[in-house]
Amino acid sequence: MKNGLWIGGLVLALFVRGSELLAEDVRWRAVAIPPSEETPGATLDRPVPVKSQSRYPSISPAALSGGILPVSFEVAEPRAEPSPRPKPSRPAPEIIAVSAPLSTSVPAAADDAEETTESVFAVDRLLRPSAPPRPPLGSILRTSAQVPQPLAVVPDTSAMTPNWNANWDGPSSHEPVLEGEDPTAFTAAASPLNRRRFYVGGEYLLWWIKGDPVPVLATTSSPNDSGILGAPTTTVLFGGNSLNGNSPFSGGRFWAGYWLDCNQTKAIEVGGFFLGPRASNFTTDSFTNPVIGRPFLEANNNQESAQLTATPGVAIGALTIHAPTMLWGLQGNLRCLLCCGCNYRISAFAGFRNINLDESLTIREDIQGLSTAPPPFTSQTITVSDSFATQNHFYGGQIGADARWYWGRWSIDGRGQLAIGGNSQLLDISGSQRFVAPNGTVQNFTGGLLAEPSNIGHFHHSAFSFVPQIGVNVGYQILPGLRGFVGYNFLYWTNVIRPGTSIDRSLDVTQIPNFPLNPEPAPVPGKHPAPVFNETNFWAQGITFGLEMTY
């Protein structure tokens, strides 16, 4: 009985143990192919997608490549620690998001190939019951529209050659980027805060002007003809042409400006120019020309006559003529940008302009009367002087425009302006004679020859005038902030007076001090000579060489 009970208990224990083994065999079944040790493990940035399986599937090697298994399965041996993922052999390109819709798919790298099965661990899309097709690996999804976008690779610019106009930053970025400059400076140069707002320039002027027409002022002849114009032996020594019109004047022009805004659309500009004084000079004496005459028209009988500076047996002496000219001006403008592009800009300006033309003509005689000379010239030291000085001062408003085009380092620009206003004309005439006797007695007389009491004085007249000016320059960018150029300019000025045109040759000989009259003619009514405002036009033109700097 005891043996039967023991045997029954052993059978019952074996039955219970067999049931437990059978149940565990059903729950834990060895995997046919364990995961490879070389398979990289899952990371946060690389979840391994595994398709959902039934409770008792047959596991394929592809399903185990990520090293993650459902809880329903068991591997036959412990899984090895995942080896770190190897770093890519090529540098990862810098990527930016592009908002344009994807037109063509971007092929994924070989090591980033995506499985064709739907992933339950997807992190690059929203989890929805019906998910749209996933974009290729390496793209970026816009969450607002859930539309995949392609990636754009930014090329390496370190080896690129900068474009000449790559950093164009507005109408007054006068200098493009030179080759060899750091391309990273383009962004800084394009910033409005870094734009150059000051600009200065200067140029050398080599200009010619319209000459001052003067009448014949000095002659020579045989003693019998006394230097009278029209006589058979009379020749002209000086006059009858234009003064200061044949030789160029040297001068300069300077300007400076400041852009009022960072966009360089408005600027204040001031400038000025000048032509240095240049004079026509003439000197002759009785050693070169024994007869020196100063011709004029005798208004008393309407005939040509002359005063003698030197003639044999009467006087010896010298005649000197000095005629300087100076031109200068100032202006201030408000400049405004009209339009601009990557290689051109066009601006307009308006403001104030002043131009001044200062000239004079002085004739001086230094005479020594001989002992054989008739009175009052006997042994007298005589000085005769005539002076005609004119000033023209223009004041007016002006408008204008200029444009500049770039071709690489080269550029060309043109400028045109017109000033309209009033011209203040000033005329100063003076004349005198000075006699010094051998005993030192000095006598002074009012009036020389062409300047007499009837026209001596200070005279003023105003006239309407306009001043157009044009110019063109060809420039070359020497440095980013320095440009050199050569050009041509033409200036025109209406209604000016000149010394030569202010001389009245018609003289009443009864007004000339110490002029021998035999017989003495009757005086002429009116003023002879008279102060004359003969208005004429003036121009100046020439070439320029200059530099312009921005900073």
Mind explaining what this structure looks like?
With 551 residues, the chain is mainly β. The protein has two domains: 93-154, no CATH class; 186-550, Lipocalin (Beta Barrel), CATH 2.40.128. It is 6% helix and 45% strand. The strands form six sheets. The chain has a ten-stranded antiparallel barrel. It has a three-stranded mixed sheet with strand order 13-12-21, with no helix packed on it. Strand 16 and strand 17 form a beta hairpin. The longest helix is centred in the first third of the chain and has 26 residues, at 2-27. It starts with a helix and ends with a strand.
**Which class best fits the helix and strand makeup?**
mainly beta
Largest sheet: 10 strands, antiparallel, barrel
The shape is rod-shaped
**Can you say what the CATH homologous superfamily of the largest domain is?**
OMPT-like
What's the gyration radius in Å? 52 Å
CATH topology of the largest domain: Lipocalin
Q: What CATH architecture label of the largest domain applies?
A: Beta Barrel
Global mean pLDDT: 79
Q: Give the number of helices.
A: 2
Written as H for each helix and E for each strand, in order along the chain, the element string is HEEEEHEEEEEEEEEEEEEEEEEE
CATH class of the largest domain: Mainly Beta
Helix content: under 10%
Tell me what portion of residues adopts beta-strand conformation.
Answer: 35-45%
Care to count the β-strands? 22
Total domain count: 2
Which stretches of 5+ consecutive residues score pLDDT under 50? 24-32, 50-58, 61-67, 69-76, 94-128, 138-194
